[in-house]
Amino acid sequence: MSSDDELAERLRAGDEKALRVAYERHGSAVLYLAQRVVGNRADAEDITQVTFVAAWSGRDGFDPQRGTMLAWLLGIARRKAVDRLRSVARDQRATETVQAQQTAPPAEETPERIVDRLVVADELGRLPEEQRRTLELAFFDDLTHPQIATVTGLPLGTVKSHIRRGMANLRRRWEVDGAPSGSRSAGPSRAL
Amino acid sequence: MHHLDPDRLVLLALSEEIEELNESDHLAQCEGCRQEIQDLRHVAELGSQAQELRELPDPPAHVWQAIEAGIAAAPAPVAPVIDMAGRRERRQRSRWLLPAVAAAAAAVLAVAGTVAVDRFTNRAPAEPVTARATLEPLKAAPPNAGGDVRVLDDGRMRVDVRNLPLTTGFHEVWLLDPDEPGKMVAVGSLSDKPDAVLPVPPGTDLNRYRLVDISDEPHDGDATHSGRSLLRGTLTY
């Protein structure tokens, strides 16, 4: 599997296959983000298309030192989706549908927050197997550390160390790749 | 002041253990440790919402087709010649070679441009042309395939193609809307002759449907685009 570095280089050299690789890896996350932000499938597919075409045109702007390919694509998609919402609102400011859309994304589900979720989910999928499994039991099944030790057969100390390292990895990725105006800069009211 | 142990902060953030009295005191005073716990909790919350994101469905195939159409229509970002070099020669090459290749490609394009202009000026001077496009080969076509399209002021379109791959079906001409994937107008099919004149459906907005597409269509009775595009080019005026 080629790294983001290699993909970046191939993209810069004008290799369309590299864009295809990026699309196969991240197209579904881009579509998910678009769908969550604009709320309808046709627009979401359109935004996905526009995002990858923009990624192609702006491929020199991708710098693997500053974030992953996923974060870069989600950043483009987020801006395109928000622009779309705004232009819809502008076009039909008076109609009821738009009033609904303008108030649609609740605070919980800002585009930045969706990006953060996708980035953390992606990192979770990349963790070493035992670390990932341990965190999933804590996150998804809400198990305590002793319960996780029982379920997995791992010593309690190992469970704790997996959780600690896994959390550190997720957090690092969120800091690097999370949406810029995301919740971390907001006050305590947003943190939970 | 001793800050709380980072490992301890993880346990507290996950509510795995309850704060001791002295820890509560410290947290009440220490902005840094409070922020740390908040960040960890936030990340844990994002993580606990990751379950539904693990098996996201792939976008449908027509999205990628629309991306390819968009790329074909998009202006090349760096320098067009690099884009073309990349498309024509799919081999990997190291980066230091690129400037040389680009320069060579530029020279070739300059010559090709002159030839094309000569052809336009020498040929068919009697035909008033309102728009034209140069067709470039896509992946499914050999690199030397190509063509020219001229929209005449009587509403017909002259399509001149070369080196298309053989087909068991037929080659069809379409006008696509590059801004709205999936929207297209069928213009007609090409015969064995390299040069065809086809009527553009009256009222077609050529500013919108400006991307000319030549596709390979099987004889399957399905009137929609096969998705197998061979050549593309954008109409200019």
Automatic annotation (TrEMBL), chain A:
Keywords: DNA-binding, Sigma factor, Transcription, Transcription regulation. Residues 23-90 form the RNA polymerase sigma-70 region domain. Transmembrane segments: none annotated. Belongs to the sigma-70 factor family. ECF subfamily. Residues 121-170 form the RNA polymerase sigma factor 70 region 4 type domain. CDD domains: Sigma70_r4 (cd06171). Signal peptide: none annotated. PANTHER family: RNA POLYMERASE ECF-TYPE SIGMA FACTO, RNA POLYMERASE SIGMA FACTOR SIGZ. This is RNA polymerase sigma factor. InterPro entries: RNA_pol_sigma-70-like (IPR039425), RNA_pol_sigma-70_dom (IPR014284), RNA_pol_sigma70_ECF_CS (IPR000838), RNA_pol_sigma70_r2 (IPR007627), RNA_pol_sigma70_r4_t2 (IPR013249), RNA_pol_sigma_r2 (IPR013325), RNA_pol_sigma_r3/r4-like (IPR013324), WH-like_DNA-bd_sf (IPR036388). It comes from the Bacteria. It comes from Paractinoplanes lichenicola. The keyword Transcription applies. The keyword Transcription applies. PROSITE patterns: SIGMA70_ECF.
Automatic annotation (TrEMBL), chain B:
Residues 101-227 form the Anti-sigma K factor RskA C-terminal domain. The keyword Transmembrane applies. It comes from the Bacteria. Residues 216-237 are annotated as: Disordered. Residues 216-225 have a biased composition (Basic and acidic residues). The chain crosses the membrane at residues 96-117. The keyword Transmembrane helix applies. Pfam families: RskA_C. This is Anti-sigma factor. It comes from Paractinoplanes lichenicola.
